[in-house]
Amino acid sequence: MNKYEMMFIVKATMESDQVKATAENMKKIVEECGGKIIEYKELGEKKLAYAIKKELNGYYFVMQFEATKEAEAELSRKAGLDENVLRHLIVKLDEE
Fold first, then answer.
1. Alpha carbons 18 and 13: distance in angstroms, whole number
2. How far, in Å, CA of 37 to CA of 1, rounded?
3. What is the C-alpha separation between 92 and 95, in angstroms, rounded?
4. Under a CB-based contact definition with an 8 Å cutoff, are residues 23 and 53 in contact?
5. Overall fold of domain 2-91
């Protein structure tokens, strides 16, 4: 399995319960595909550099996980389909 880091931005205009549920859904997708969460951080609400889908603020999350290439592709696909996720980026980490 490979190590990955994912940063994603969730709409800040939603209720805090919905923001947390969206973030938990990203974690659940990794675990359902046989991956393992290594580290998970909430970075909080920040002002975006430019408007994304008419949103000016976003709630940032960073997650490190181990998963197969197929699981990473599925996570990226589902994050792209989720209307509450404004942006996401998944980076493969180097082997140490």
1. 10
2. 12
3. 9
4. no
5. Alpha-Beta Plaits (3.30.70)
How does pLDDT run across 31-89, given as a tens digit for each residue? Answer: 999 999 999 999 999 999 999 999 999 999 999 999 999 999 999 999 999 999 999 99
55-67 and 85-92 beta bridge pairing:
unpaired
Q: In Å, how far from its chain's centre is CA 43?
A: 12
Q: Phi first, then psi: what are they for 12, rounded to 5°?
A: -90, -10
Rg (CA), the chain: 13
| pLDDT for the residue numbered 94 | 87
Phi, psi of 42 (to 5 degrees): -100, 120
Which pLDDT score, from 0 to 100, does residue 95 have? 76
